[in-house]
Design brief:
By secondary structure, the chain is mostly helical. It contains eleven helices and no strands. It starts with a helix and ends with a helix.
Length: 216
Amino acid sequence: MLSVAKHLDRARSFGLRPQDDRRALSHVAFDRWEALAASRASLAVMFLWAVAEATVWPIIPDFLLVPLAVGAQRRFLRPLLASILGSTLGGAALYVFAHRRPSRARALLAALPFVAERHVRTAEAGIAEHGAWAFLLQPWSGVAFKVWALVAASRGVDPALAIPASVAGRALRMAISAALPGLLSARFRRTVRDHALALTALYGAAFGAVLRALMR
């Protein structure tokens, strides 16, 4: 906070306007986020978030992956790979457990947070129609992977087919979530840096609105 205050005092000493103060704050926030996105700590958090989301946590890893890619820019592959690896390990562990303990899988499904009956019906219909290949569609369904995994495993869908299909489907979505903002941030870095705080607020509001709509 002290460095931010010094930054603003320096800006005011040159007679800059209030909007320039906001820009200066955006610069400080963006520069710090860039440094954080390049750190090993951010990769560890990304990995753990993806593991948790594949098992019990309700918020998809893309929520963190997008801003990390914005900070990493052309090095977006680092958080992307951390997310894919965490999602793969967590998802595979959940699927194998559910396949071996189908009754426990159904009990876990009923206990998951923010899972409605319509989510379960969507997954059941997809699995019934497409089998393991339904996992290629899951990332675009608006229904959490773990719901599809618990439904499929309890129905006896072969893990050797379901797990690779789920990895491919989710990796594609994550690649889009990382590559697009990462490359756009690299191309328009100055604009993103100037308006980092406003863009952060807009992103949070938009993601929150989508999340609320999906969880109804």
